[in-house]
Structure formats: C-alpha cells, structure tokens
Design a protein that fits this description.
Layout: H1 3-7, E1 19-26, E2 29-37, E3 46-51, E4 61-65, H2 71-80, E5 84-88, H3 96-99, E6 104-105, H4 109-115, E7 118-121, H5 126-134, E8 148-151, H6 157-168, E9 173-176, E10 179-180, H7 183-188, E11 191-197, H8 199-212, E12 213-218, H9 224-252, H10 257-266, H11 272-282, H12 292-308, H13 314-328, H14 340-349
Parallel strand pairs: 4-5, 4-7, 5-6, 7-8, 8-9, 11-12
Antiparallel strand pairs: 1-2, 2-3, 9-11, 10-11
Helix pairs in contact: 5-6, 9-11, 9-12, 9-13, 10-11, 12-13, 13-14
Length: about 350
C-alpha cells in the first residue's frame, strides 16, 4: 500500500452544472466517481455517488467519529451523497437515524479506523479528541499506512499536534480541519474548513469537504488550522458579547431592539449572526446551534494561544468572563447567544 494510491483516490469535484465522471484508484484498483448536483443540498453542494462495475472497486470507505450537533448533519450529508459511511458515537442511539438511512455502526473508534480508508472525527473538546484518537480502543490503534485521519474538532494547537504525532506514528496521514459554522451551515453543507497537515490527504478528501462545506483553506503545517479556528471563534464570541450589550442598552434607553437589529443588519457592521440571533435573543429564546459552553471553551483556548505569543487580548478576556458568568447561571447547553442573560443578571443585581 502506498501513499500515492491514497492520494489518487479522489480528485477535485467537476464544476459543470450537470454531471461528470472521473476514474481514479485506491491502492491501484480503479473505480469511477460520479458527481451530480443534488436538490437536497444548497445550490453549491454536490452529490457524490460511486459507480461499481466489473472494472471498478467498491468506493473508499469513510468513517465518522462523533455524532453530535455538528457531526450528525455532516455525516448525514456524506451519507445522502452516496458515501460508504461507518459511524461511532459514545451514545449509539444518536447514530440510529443515520443507520436507518444506510450507515454502518461499529463499537469503537479503533474498529472504525481499521475498517475504513478515511476517518473523520468531530469531538466536543480537546480531552475528547485525544481520548477518541489516542485512548484505549482509540482510532490510532486502527490506523495504518495508506489510511487517513481528518480531525474536524475545535482544539488547541498542542492537542492537534499531539494527535497528529500519534496518527503519523502508525504510518497513516493526518489532516486537521476544524470548521467555521454552526448547526444550520452544517445541515446545509455550508461549512468552512480550515485545514492543515498532509497536503496529499487534503487533496484526497477535498471532494468530501466540498459535500460538507462551501469553502476550504489549506494553511500549511499542523497547528495552523487550530490556531485560525480559535482566532475566528474569539472574534465571534466577542462580537456576540458586544451585541448583547447593545440590545439591552437600546431597550433600557427606550429604543426598540428589533429596530436596532434592522439598523445593524443594514450597516457597515452587518453580520449574518446579528440578524439570525437577534430576534430570538429579544424574546429570551436560545435554540442551540452552538452551545455556550463550547464558545467559552474556545475563548479560553484562544486566550491561551495569545498568552503563548505574548499578545494582549483584553476584549476577548472580558468576553470570556461574561460567558463564565452565563455558565454559572446554568446556561452551558443553551446557544452561545444566551450570554445576554449574564448581562441581565448583572443589571438585576445593580
């Protein structure tokens, strides 16, 4: 088994609007890829189906570890696109809807990695990412030369490097690919992948990333993807904290916060987050797309990254304290927009 064979198992998705086929190989055995637009997805998503005949091998087998708020819709999009998919999750019942659609299930990350050519992992935090990759019955135990591991979790740089070293020690390839986007973009195949690591593996999995996302960036060495994701989420967390202050201040001085959302959404500081989250925040409703506890975790990791290079981040540090207050009020599993409740509590105490 050679790395070249793995690299050649996929090629870029054709750009024509109808359909195209392309013959490739996995470990030297040819198979045909058929790319089509699929009306089940957003306009720029693709469906990937495999044509099996007497001269082609079965499609590459893909594993997915972690079927949660993000992992479930990502895996669903792969499955709907015709990918041969094998799942694992600590709570098996979360996999049942996907199993009913044709996915397979194995009882450990090790078994999934051993049975698949490419394995994706979407875990909640660094501890979980390390445990699933490197722990007892972890994915690394099932990796081998010719296989690839793609970690799409949001973790710190040191964690990503640790997982990379463990995976690469088996002879397999590693790519970190944390995503920018929450539940709805994951459902719509509109995620942004921030990748770093083995360039050959990046090119191999590019068609799969295109199914799950709208864009992808290759950033070089392992750690750069993790760092970029933490910077992005640091900015997002700070923006949400400031937006929360603005909504409450507008109401307290007698303005209509609904009008504030409209004004903000049409100006230079417009961001989809404001128009999407604002209306529900005004009603004190926080449907979870990105859990508040994960936003606080990412702020904490971003502050650690900043500390490692002696970069001052006072705004992010203040925002982090606000999210910690929100967690103390039992809002960890609410959407991160529930951070506004921490400000309400402070006002009520004053």
């Amino acid at each position: 088994m050679t790395m070249r064979c793995l690299m050649n198992c996929f090629f870029g998705v054709p750009t024509n609007a109808m359909a195209a086929t392309r013959t490739s190989s996995l470990w030297g055995i040819p198979f045909t890829l058929n790319f089509n637009n699929n009306n089940h997805f957003s306009s720029n998503s693709r469906s990937l189906s495999y044509i099996s005949n007497s001269t082609s091998s079965p499609a590459p087998r893909v594993g997915f570890l972690g079927i949660g708020i993000m992992g479930s819709p990502m895996a669903h999009n792969l499955l709907k696109a015709g990918v041969d998919l094998t799942l694992w999750n600590r709570t098996k019942s979360k996999c049942d809807p996907l199993i009913s659609l044709g996915a397979k299930y194995l009882s450990s990350p090790e078994e999934v990695a051993a049975s698949c050519d490419l394995t994706f992992a979407m875990l909640a935090d660094p501890h979980s990412a390390i445990d699933v990759a490197c722990g007892n019955h972890g994915a690394a135990n099932g990796m081998a030369p010719g296989k690839g591991y793609v970690d799409v979790s949001t973790v710190d740089v040191d964690t990503s490097k640790l997982i990379s070293e463990r995976i690469k020690a088996t002879g397999a390839l590693f790519l970190e690919a944390p995503v920018s986007g929450s539940k709805k973009p994951a459902e719509d195949g509109q995620l942004i992948f921030l990748t770093a690591g083995d360039r050959n593996l990046y090119e191999t999995v590019a068609p799969l990333l295109d199914i799950m996302g709208k864009s992808k960036f290759y950033l070089g060495d392992v750690g750069n993807g993790a760092a970029m994701k933490l910077v992005v989420n640091m900015i997002m967390g700070s923006m949400m904290a400031s937006f929360s202050e603005g909504l409450l201040l507008s109401e307290k001085v007698g303005l209509d916060p609904k009008v504030l959302v409209e004004v903000v959404s049409q100006g230079a500081i417009s961001a989809p987050m404001y128009s999407t989250k604002g209306p529900s925040m005004i009603q004190s409703v926080y449907p979870t797309a990105f859990p508040l506890k994960h936003q606080q975790k990412d702020l904490r990791l971003a502050l650690g990254l900043a500390e490692s290079v002696s970069q001052s981040t006072p705004i992010a540090a203040a925002a982090n304290e606000l999210y910690k207050v929100a967690k103390s009020h039992g809002l960890s599993d609410e959407d991160f927009s529930a951070v506004i409740e921490a400000l309400k509590s402070k006002f009520q105490q004053s």
